[in-house]
Amino acid sequence: VRPLPETEDIAEAEWSRDRTHVGIDRWTGGASDGRLFTVAEPQGVTWEDLDIELDLSRVGHDQRRAAVLICGVAIGQLVDGTIGFGRGTTRGLGEVEVKRLKVSVPGDLPAYSPDQTWWSWLREVAGEGDLPSVLGLARESA
Length: 142
Known about the structure:
With 142 residues, the protein is of the alpha+beta class. It has helices spanning 64-80, 118-126, 131-134, and strands at residues 14-24, 31-43.
């Protein structure tokens, strides 16, 4: 267990959420009979802003759009709440709530407006093709 970050907001964290987990048998990998354990987990913790910077000078000019899209899909997953950070994300730990986005893009890409959804902006960045095909994720029909 890692300690929480040392910020003033930690004092406001509540440790009232107890979660019960099943102990795992190290030999079989299955549930260990009668080995439930309970841990107290923090909630109500506020973290500092997360800054993600994509250095487009490190990719070729013809790959800039793809780099923005790939990073954008990862950010979209954070916005949707489908991925988290750290240990135990499948147990409800590491949950992330995105409250606001501030995006700066080079002039040759469409500007992001907070009035539009993240995915609609990514589709706009993708341009002519749809998002899966631009990212190389489109499957060919058999």
